[in-house]
Write a structure and sequence with these properties.
The chain has about 280 residues and is of the alpha+beta class. It has helices spanning about 10-25, 45-55, 90-105, 110-115, 120-130, 135-145, 165-175, 180-190, 205-210, 255-270; strands spanning about 60-70, 75-80, 85, 160, 215-220, 220-225, 230-240, 240-250. β1 and β2 (about 75-80) form a beta hairpin. α2 (about 45-55) packs antiparallel against α10 and α4 crosses α5 (about 120-130).
Length: about 280
C-alpha cells in the first residue's frame, strides 16, 4: 500500500530552500581579487625565516616562495618567485581547470579524486583526453602564466615547468574568476585532502602541519624530474584575510621525500604574515 504524506506548501518551500542554501550558499574561498597582483616595494616578508627553517631541517634545497593577500591583491612575501620548477602534482590544478571548462560535469568525479587524494591515474586520464601539453598551453595563455612551460615529453605531465608566482596566479583565478560552481568543486576537493594520498604518501606536510588550526585548501606535489627531487606545498589559507601560500622546492637526487616534507613543514611554520586560524 502506498502511503501519501501531505505537507503544507509553505513547509515544502522552506525545506527546499534550506537544502539549496546548504548545498550552494557557502562560497568561503571567493575573493574580489580580479586584477593583477601587485608587489609594493618588492617585499621579502617571511622569506628569510622560511628559507632558514628549511635549511636547518635539511640541506640542499632550491626554493621558490610567494605569499599573496587576496584581500588586497598584494604580494606580501616572496623569494625566487619567478624561478621555474618541475610541477609534480601541482599541475593538476591546470588539468582540473581545463577539464571543468571543456568537459563540465562529465569530468567532475575524476577532478575530485585527482585533487583530493592526488590520484595520478585520474590525472593521466584527463591529461590524455584533453590533449596533454595543449592543456598547459591553453591555461598558460588564459591565465597569463608567464613562467609555465609544457613538458618536453608529452606524457610526463609532472615535468610541466612553473613558478611560485604562476601558482599564486592560478589560485587567484580560482578564488576570483572561476565560476562559483567550479570554485566550490575545486576548493571543496582540496580542503578535503586526507593525510594519506592515493600512492600512500603523507600529503599533510607543509601547509596543513605547518599552519595547524588554519583553514586550508591545498594541492601538494612530490616526485622526481631531471635528476632532482621535487616537493611542493601550495594552497589557499584562510584567516582574517584570504591568502595564497606557495613553497616550491627542488632537492638533490635521492633526497628522502618524507625528510623534504618535514623541511617544508618547518619552513611554513615560520610564515609570519597573518595567516592565522579562522
Amino acid at each position: 500500500m502506498r502511503v501519501r504524506l501531505w505537507l503544507p506548501v509553505g513547509l515544502v518551500v522552506a525545506v527546499v530552500a534550506t537544502v539549496l542554501i546548504t548545498s550552494f550558499g557557502r562560497d568561503p574561498w571567493r575573493t574580489g581579487c580580479t586584477g593583477p597582483l601587485t608587489a609594493p616595494g618588492n617585499p621579502t616578508g617571511s622569506a628569510a625565516a622560511v628559507r632558514k627553517a628549511v635549511d636547518e631541517s635539511a640541506r640542499g634545497a632550491s626554493i621558490g616562495y610567494e605569499v599573496v593577500d587576496l584581500s588586497s591583491c598584494q604580494v606580501v612575501a616572496g623569494v625566487n618567485a619567478q624561478q621555474r620548477f618541475a610541477s609534480a602534482s601541482v599541475v593538476k590544478l591546470l588539468i582540473a581547470l581545463d577539464a571543468l571548462e571543456r568537459q563540465g560535469e562529465a569530468a567532475e568525479d575524476l577532478v575530485e579524486r585527482m585533487l583530493t587524494v592526488s590520484d595520478d591515474n585520474a590525472a593521466s586520464a584527463l591529461w590524455t583526453a584533453q590533449g596533454g601539453p595543449q592543456i598547459v598551453q591553453r591555461m598558460a595563455d588564459k591565465l597569463k602564466l608567464g613562467g609555465v612551460r609544457p613538458p618536453k615529453k608529452a606524457g610526463q605531465w609532472g615535468d610541466t615547468q612553473l613558478t611560485a608566482h604562476d601558482v599564486a596566479l592560478v589560485y587567484r583565478h580560482i578564488s576570483a574568476v572561476a565560476s562559483r560552481e567550479h570554485r566550490q568543486l575545486l576548493t571543496t576537493s582540496m580542503a578535503a585532502a586526507p593525510r594519506t594520498a592515493a600512492d600512500g604518501f603523507d600529503q599533510h606536510f607543509g601547509i596543513p602541519d605547518g599552519l595547524q588550526g588554519a583553514r586550508w585548501a591545498i594541492k601538494q606535489g612530490w616526485g622526481s624530474s631531471a635528476e632532482r627531487t621535487m616537493v611542493h606545498t601550495t594552497g589557499l589559507v584562510g584567516g582574517d584575510h584570504q591568502y595564497v601560500v606557495v613553497l616550491l622546492t627542488s632537492w638533490p637526487e635521492g633526497m628522502d621525500r618524507r625528510a623534504a616534507g618535514r623541511a617544508l613543514t618547518a619552513g611554513i611554520g615560520r610564515v609570519s604574515e597573518p595567516v592565522s586560524p579562522a
